[in-house]
Amino acid sequence: MRIGVYGAGAIGCFVGGLLQAGGAEVIFVGRTRTKTEVDTHGLTLEDLQAAPVRLDAGAIRYETDPEVLAECDVVLVCVKSAQTEAVAEQLAKTVPSALVVSLQNGVRNPETLRIHLPDVMAGIVEFNVRSMGDGVFRRTMSGPILLESTGSPGTTEVFAAMERSGIALQTKTDILPSQWTKMIVNLNNAVSALSGASTPTLLTTPGYRRVIADIIDEALRIFEDTLGSEEDYLDLIR
Q1: Above 60 in pLDDT, residue 214?
Q2: For residues 237 and 223, is the Cβ–Cβ distance under 8 A?
Q3: Per-residue pLDDT reduced to its tens digit, 66-122
Q4: For the chain, where are the E strands, in sequence order?
């Protein structure tokens, strides 16, 4: 099984790099700037407590043209949500029969992909990765990758590749509630951006915690006002 990573930035390079280190054949597709960095330095994947994983530049295939994904059986989509529609249209032309896995935050990305593609698996990355420069990508939080169990023929191979790579993996047949939860939790990103505080600081400082709690309460009130009832809300997240 050949795996493509479309949008190989911090998350894409980290996950794709671990998959390659675990024995998978991986093609990375991303920006010219990242290609230059990886072609020069290779990949160094730093984790919280595990030893770094290093891949030499010569062993990595990093391209900027998504047409190379035509060679792939599975494509991990790691682009920002605003790019999902365009990526779906591109993949429908390039790899119309591949299994496409959305490793994106947000709720609607898998459905946007499904408009154009027949075999889509929703996913959630529960950890953060920082680009440190010179091909170094550092995971800064623990957590698994959560993947939707769709029953598609390729899912078993994807799950096995993840497990061989050492990535903590969880699977669910009903992933939508977890997607909504992730979206609400990510509302703290605005506090981090405005304050410059790290996630551990946000979670351990009483003042920041109160602000984040207020933001989450506001989000839940908006859901209740918009949907009209708790039953409507529960139907939506399910």
Answers
A1: yes
A2: no
A3: 999 999 999 999 999 999 999 999 999 999 999 999 999 888 999 999 999 999 999
A4: 2-6, 25-29, 43-46, 53-55, 61-63, 74-77, 99-103, 120-125, 129-133, 136-139, 145-148, 169-172
Asked if 215 and 188 count as a contact pair (C-beta separation under 8 A), the reply is: yes
**Amino acid letter, 27:** I
Question: Cα angle vertex 139, ends 134, 192, to 5°?
Answer: 100
Distance of CA 29 to the CA centre of its chain: 14
How far apart (Å, rounded) are the C-alpha atoms in residues 28 and 72? Answer: 11
Sheet holding 99-103, edge to edge: 61-63, 25-29, 2-6, 74-77, 99-103, 120-125, 145-148, 169-172
**Dihedral sign (CA 154, 159, 161, 162):** positive
Assess contact for 12 and 78: CB atoms under 8 A.
Answer: yes
Its pTM surpasses 0.85: yes
d(CA 107, CA 90): 21
Crossing angle of helices 84-94 and 109-116, in 10° steps, is 30
Element counts in the chain: helices (H) and strands (E)? 10, 12
Side chain identity, residue 161: A
Confirm if 59 and 87 have CB atoms less than 8 A apart. no
> Which residues make Cβ contacts (< 8 Å) with residue 132, sequence separation at least 6?
46, 138
